[in-house]
Design brief:
The chain contains 14 helices and 13 strands. With about 400 residues, the chain is α/β, with parallel strands linked by helices.
Length: about 400
């Protein structure tokens, strides 16, 4: 097998979403630009593999330095020794970050190695990982954090133009009015509504009582139950997931996007936390770890919707994992981000709300000098996690 001759990190920044109309941008990305972090692996006389780590959205320089730390472990090694390569990268970082930031870099390395291997064999990654036939993935749109009704209507119209019939909005327990408004106007367009309650890092987070009061307010006056609720509780209330499901709240419960090991997410699935598990290959350790979650979920009769909120390499990695793992539904980020189109070997194929992957060898992504020149890293393109909610403009959802 060929040997690895170089490993480098690549940070790219691009305009993101619609800055005046998007609460995520206003509160978390005030520059209006967002960063994607890649690992590029070159092998001798062979293709270039690309991987992505979600960490770079939040801490790009940390991502860059961790890649520099692990690169010497890989250079000069045989590409065919994938399990040992990943073991050694994990050993370099595991003592201080087995469940945390370094796992995002491990993820990027694993994805890049899989991309290289698939290209060498002339097959798409989904086939390398055991997928037998190409089949469509049903997409649900993810966005719904608009500043008010007018931009939300435009978002709903974009969703219908793609043939997608489910939108996941962001709403907290005090935003039943926003949820009902989206349900009413979504229904008129044939779009159902799910809700991301954004509590995955909240300390303290909302309670079971908060969620039940919210659902009662949403369904009051002929409102309907959200099709699923995502990230309902924070890290200190994980046990509340099973209790909420046992209470027959009426909505399916989803989560898991920030979990950084397959063992932890599988444990949550086995504890009955979720109806829908949401692993992300750019976070959890790569494509192999994502497939471990699919295997566990099948045993527990839990659905898996891969989390796809990153850049094009991360999105493709998750879609390939879903296809190989038997997934049927995947997230589609509706917010504009130019990198998602610029790095594709072939344009996205979405027909009647379904994504079709191709037989292009590897992941189907590319990085050229022109792309690096067009989207250079910006120091102000960093996602802020600590924000002042009072800066969010008030909206009338009545």
């Amino acid at each position: 097998m060929p040997r690895i001759i170089s490993v480098r990190s690549v940070l790219l920044s691009a305009p993101y979403s619609e800055p005046r109309d998007d609460l995520e941008v206003i509160l978390h990305l005030p520059s209006g630009w967002r960063t994607t972090g890649l690992v590029e692996i070159k092998i001798d006389d062979g293709p270039v593999g690309l991987g992505e780590g979600y960490l770079a959205v939040f801490a790009p320089r940390v991502f860059e330095q961790i890649v520099a730390l692990v690169a010497p472990v890989l250079v000069g090694r045989d590409l065919g020794d994938l399990p040992r390569l990943l073991r050694d990268v994990s050993l370099v970082t595991g003592y201080w970050s087995l469940q945390g930031a370094a796992q995002h870099v491990v993820s990027a390395v694993e994805i890049a190695l899989q991309d290289c291997t698939a290209q060498l064999r002339g097959v798409p990654v989904w086939r390398l990982l055991g997928g037998e036939t190409v089949r469509p993935l049903q997409l649900y749109a993810s966005g719904g954090d608009c500043t008010g009704p007018e931009p939300m209507l435009r978002e709903l119209d974009r969703i219908r133009a793609l043939g997608i019939d489910l939108l996941k909005i962001r709403a907290r327990h005090h935003q039943a009015d926003k949820t009902r408004w989206c349900q009413h106007h979504g229904s008129a367009r044939g779009v159902g509504i799910a809700v991301d309650m954004t509590q995955n890092l909240a300390i303290p987070s909302q309670s079971i009582d908060d969620v039940q009061r919210y659902l009662a307010a949403v369904t009051r006056d002929a409102g309907s139950m959200p099709l699923f609720l995502e990230e309902v509780f924070g890290p200190q209330e994980i046990k509340s997931y099973a209790r909420l499901r046992a209470s027959s709240c009426g909505s399916r419960i989803a989560g898991g996007e920030i979990v950084t090991t397959s063992g932890e997410l599988c444990s949550r699935i086995e504890q009955g936390c979720y109806d829908i598990a949401q692993p992300d290959a750019t976070v959890i350790g790569g494509l192999g770890a994502t497939l471990d979650v699919f295997a566990c979920a099948r045993q527990q009769r839990t659905e898996v919707y891969v989390h796809c909120w990153g850049g094009p390499v991360g999105m493709m990695a998750n879609y390939h994992a879903a296809l190989a793992g038997g997934g049927t539904v995947a997230e589609w980020p509706i917010k504009p981000y130019a990198l998602r189109e610029a790095m594709l070997a072939e344009p996205w194929r979405i027909e009647r709300g379904q994504l079709l992957l191709s037989d292009t060898p590897g992941l189907g992504v590319r990085l050229t000098p022109e792309i690096e020149r067009e989207f250079p890293f910006r120091e102000d393109a960093v996602y802020r996690c600590l924000v002042d909610p009072s800066k969010a403009p008030a909206a009338d959802w009545r």
